[in-house]
Design goal:
It contains 19 helices and no strands. Helix 2 runs antiparallel to helix 3 and helix 9 runs antiparallel to helix 10. The longest helix is centred in the middle third of the chain and has 37 residues. The radius of gyration is 22 Å and the shape is globular.
């Protein structure tokens, strides 16, 4: 196997494990509350988790921006900038986290007005929210650290941190809920503690594995004690660290990624909303089938993360031969995964749905629409892998344009097909949305970016 293919797998496989653990923090909370004896607990935790997941998703640019900027600096062997992007990202992430804490009341009220839960559920959501909001700085700080680690071609540390977070969350939540009988407070406290443990653990691993390798001054890797890296952080000149040009680059890249994420969130939220218009059976069927799409995304995103790290490094080093090889082979590995998922879904998709629910009406409805899932893996691969490449080379404006155009087409196509095609029109619109993202990114790459 070519060394670069081994490196792709070396980054992709731990990323896949990390991606799969991401939804477990919310899933564990729901599973624990599901044994408290009342549906209101499940509803409250589900609403609370969704509010935080959506909010944090909007700030995903902290991870992606850090990854691309760091990997390019690494490729140029500008190690002072490598450290600088870490500090800038952490300062901004912790600042946003504190702002979310200060703005918790309007955020909470806006979410509750949108969800409109019953009074009993509302009070539980408020309790959950006011505990978990204190984890915002840790969560966003960890976004930056994970992006920086991936930019450094290291996806193993994010994997270890993600696994540790989930273990801590499970153990502490179980103890608080069933040992101390804290109920919603126990679930929220377990999540909060897991978030801070994950962030502090990642900080510890940062100094353990990179403290002696990074030092400001000459722009080269140097050896020495971990204290050298700590000293180098405080040795940066404030004017240079937060210079106008550096901050402008950081915010332009992350601004575009933020609005691109808004487009993605809008499509996903509307997909759920449009399903609810057609009744609870169709909504349930769509929710189950969407899990199959999310499973594909968790796996293929591992290769997108490899594309982020390696394409950014080679782009920064101006090694376009290695860059081109990386792009082609990330697509190759992605297509292999997509093909395998297509075969697995074709053979066992109905069995997977039956595993998730035994409600006959939902199973029947899911069977009616499941053939759209057969098409999704191969139709979505372009959007996933190109996202990784574009993050790596910080082509954030192109990402924004393609996501915006694809979202507009999604809404227009849905509006024109919904009355005649119903839920099939919704799935068609979603499939076209994925295809357009990948297709436009291909055009942008070959016309505008490849020859830069």
């Amino acid at each position: 196997m070519n060394p670069r293919d081994r490196q792709i797998l070396h980054i992709a496989i731990p990323s896949i494990v990390s991606n799969i653990t991401v939804p477990l923090l919310g899933l564990v909370d729901v599973a624990i509350t599901g044994h408290l004896g009342a549906a209101a607990y499940i509803a409250a935790i589900s609403i609370g988790s969704m509010v935080f997941n959506t909010t944090y998703w909007l700030f995903g640019f902290l991870r992606m921006g850090s990854s691309g900027l760091t990997s390019q600096s690494l490729g140029r062997r500008d190690f002072q900038e490598v450290a600088a992007w870490l500090i800038r990202g952490l300062v901004i992430a912790l600042g946003i986290g504190l702002l979310l804490i200060f703005a918790q009341w309007p955020i909470r009220e806006m979410a509750l007005r949108l969800m409109q839960p019953e009074e009993e559920v509302r009070q539980m959501v408020i309790t959950y929210f006011h505990i978990c909001i204190w984890g915002a700085p840790a969560t966003l700080g960890l976004y930056t650290l994970n992006g920086w680690f991936i930019g450094m071609q290291n996806s193993r540390i994010p994997m270890v941190v993600a696994i540790t977070q989930n273990i801590i969350n499970i153990l502490i939540s179980l103890f608080f809920v069933f040992g101390l009988h804290m109920k919603v407070e126990g679930v929220a406290s377990g999540t909060l503690i897991a978030q801070w443990v994950g962030f502090l653990f990642a900080c510890g691993l940062l100094f353990r594995f990179y403290g002696r390798h990074l030092k400001s001054g000459e722009g080269r890797v140097e050896t020495g004690a971990a204290a050298n890296f700590q000293f180098s952080i405080f040795n940066f000149q404030f004017e240079k660290l937060f210079s106008k040009s550096a901050l402008k680059k950081f915010f332009i890249v992350n601004r575009d990624i933020f609005f691109r994420t808004v487009c993605l969130v809008s499509v996903m939220l509307f997909f759920t909303t449009a399903g609810s218009w057609q009744g609870e059976v169709t909504l349930a069927a769509n929710t189950l089938l969407m899990q199959l799409f999310l499973l594909v995304s968790y796996v293929v995103d591992g290769f997108a993360n490899a594309a982020e790290a390696m394409s950014g490094k080679y782009w920064g080093a101006r090694n376009f031969r290695a860059f081109s090889y990386t792009v082609r082979h990330c697509f190759l590995w992605g297509f292999i995964c997509a093909f395998l998922f297509t075969v697995v879904y074709w053979v066992g998709g109905d069995a997977f749905v039956a595993l998730l629910t035994d409600e006959p009406t939902v199973v029947e409805a899911a069977h009616k629409y499941i053939w759209w899932i057969y098409l999704i893996p191969l139709c979505s691969i372009g959007a996933f892998i190109w996202d990784g490449v574009f993050v790596g080379i910080t082509a954030s404006r192109e990402m924004l344009i393609t996501s915006l155009v694809a979202a507009v087409v999604f809404f227009l196509l849905f509006a024109s097909t919904y009355h005649s095609w119903g839920n099939h029109g919704l799935w068609l619109s979603f499939l076209v949305y994925l295809l357009i993202r990948g297709s436009l990114q291909t055009v942008f790459f070959h016309r505008s970016l490849k020859d830069k």
